[in-house]
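The step that takes the researchers longest sounds almost clerical: writing a folded protein down as plain text. Below is the pair of lines this work produces for a single protein:

——
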Amino acid sequence: MTTLQPSTRGIVRLATEADHDAIHALNYRTFVEEIPQHAPNAARRQVDRFHDENVYAVYEVHGRIVGMVSGRTQRPFSLDQKLGSVDDYLPAGRTPVEIRLLAVEPEFRASRVFAQLVGFITRHFLAKGFDLGIMSGTTRQLRLYRHLGFHAFGPLIGTEQAAYQPMYITAEEVLAWPEALKDGADALGAGANFLPGPVGISDVVQQAMQRGATSHRAESFHACYRDVQRRLCTLADAKQATMLLGSGTLANDVVAAQISLLDAPGVIASNGEFGERLIDHATRMQIPHTVVRAPWGEPLDYAEVAHAMRSTSARWLWSVHGETSTGVINDLAALTAIAQDHHAKLALDIISSLGTVPLSLRDVWLASAVSGKSLSAFPGIAIVLHDGQIHSASRRIPRYLDLGLAVQEQGVPFTQSSNLLDALGTSLAEIDWPARFQRVAHDGAWLRRAMESRGWRVLAPADCASPAVHTLIPPAGVSARALGEQLRDAGWLISFESGYLRERNWLQVCLMGHYTPASLRAFPAALDRCATTTAVKSPAHAAPLGEFARPRRATA
């Protein structure tokens, strides 16, 4: 579909096949007659050698094509062929598109047509995940290119009559252009939801949530429940899944209740806020346990965990897999091996990892999850995945925490919401999970580079970091809370209000729900804009970065 975008005197839009003759004619007038790059021909049409691979944008005034530009993503680029690989000249970690054939009829060159064509084609590819534009800029317009934010690299190319300077521009620089240059811009910079919950929801999941409610006793509800169970087990490589109306906290209470029925000591490994909450679950349930802590932002000390298991004759091990507070992913294989070595049962909190990274629960006893985070649905369904080796219904624990009772009743012992279940099932069905994992990994790596290049420290080391949870330590003197509030006012939702974040002057950017590549690429520029107007004094209650600098040994 052709997308029309209003401009000062015309429209800038993607070209259609009907525009090709006008494109070839403008190409000839510009790059044969005006700038002698090609030999003349009788047809007075110049068909670009990459025509079939080009995406064209054109500027139209009263039905006349007066400007054009093209973008091409296939490698090698034409600049690769002239300079060798251009990657050595470019900022690291970017995904480039080559911008070519920028041509504007002479009478329109004093207007904003030039900038609007560049901005339109750049935003078009930005929405597809590209974040760097490269081009050969005519030396006749270098001042204009530099004004727009282009950076020169490499030697001049071309001929004395038609000399060009290789240049690049980042997505952030295009998005930061003054509004006067952005006629025809879409709402790429209008904000996005990068919270760990509630997360961004796709339109189709929103629609599922709004369908009429069904009784939890109806066969159609049970059919939907079984379908969601099957999809969850496939996604997690688990044997069984049970869902209850509630939050992730409820799911962990259900896990704690099952552990309490073992009547055996165990170990809880913690390296963040949600590991500490597991300790609280066990303490409230009066379960005997030993705690092994690691510094927040660091992986667990697996040798210390193994030592605690051996020295206490532990029969179970409980840990967070993806620690939401810090962005650390703990090693599932290492935890599994420790549990197996000590003939112990392994329980995990996978609330922030299920749906963002591939995992297998084949050797896990119990795992807690929830609908409203990385499964990209609405909050309200507590999920417990398990291997089927659970205790039967027991009066030793509250009815609602009795997983055995829930399984005995085919997962629906009490009232549940068909709307929430339908929305979760729709999300599980609509997402291509292997592609989702690849996209989050790519986007997470890009976001990490973008933040570090701006002087922000990402708390979790790269080799154990979740691609979906980025806990950010601001540069010296920047108030995370003030910056988070300003971003929120501008439409950018990131996490900064949780107590553990406020205490430490941290921010979090999470890629758990529905978002577009364009909104992610626009975020660093939005952060830059807000940071320039945010108070620079850190809150007095901010904890020093070395607060958790020393590991703590196992404690009973």
